[in-house]
Known about the structure:
By secondary structure, the chain is an alpha/beta fold. It is about 40% helix and about 15% strand. It has a single domain, classed as Rossmann fold (3-Layer(aba) Sandwich). A seven-stranded mixed sheet has the order 5-6-2-7-1-8-9, with helices on both faces.
Amino acid sequence: MKVISLINMKGGVGKTTMSVNICDCLATRNNSKVLLIDIDPQFNSTQCLMNPDEYVNYLKKGSDTIINVYDRATRPLVSSVDGIKETIPKKIEDIEPLKIKKNFYLLPGNLELYRVEMTPGEGRENRLNKFLIAIKEKYNFDYVIIDTPPTPSIWMTSALLASEYYLIPVKPDPISFTGIDLLQSIIDDRKENLDLKIKCCGVVLTMVEDQTRVYKDAIKFLSTSKWSKYKYAKELPKRTAIARTQLDKTFILDLNDAQASSAITGITDELVRRTK
């Protein structure tokens, strides 16, 4: 089971789009069993895979979300759906992901995640790793993809602790490239302090407009930086259709767009090769 976090401290770089569509491509074209974990308190990946009514009904049934991994105390919980209620935690091995389609499962995010009080050093940052260990034999996932928040936080640390690799989606512009150096310094700090063995498995360009001056300048910068060896061969092109339809549970492979489909397929194939 390969566990891969998609990480960038800058929002709006296509991290969620990449997370959801890499999972779909692994499940659909590679016939791999995959789990997507939405650890971002904004739960954007979840919104791409569940419409509001489905999500509300899912919560009303008491089905599991990422909050069940971390919120282990029996205590009153203020819910945006049901008001105040008492929560009794499940055993971590009994937390059940939601099946989205054949080979594709989701542990949904939860807006209430920000209410969970968790401070570094108390041990709960290891909960995600313990959860994955607990369900490994039960589900036999080939890949686990973690969509992380765009901020350095305890949730990002928890994702890093659970992961073997991290992939950096980045827009091809100078500001975004400056940001990945800062991101790397934060990851290096976590690796040193927490003795992490996580490795970078690449940098993938998203929202690409390859005829622009900004793109060409960004590629020139990337080719002469330490990140050149990490760059993926395929790049995800900018498409309004991708942004417009992703909240309708439409994947890139469902679009009538050969270039975008080729891009996500190539990116997924390279991810598989780099994490063998």
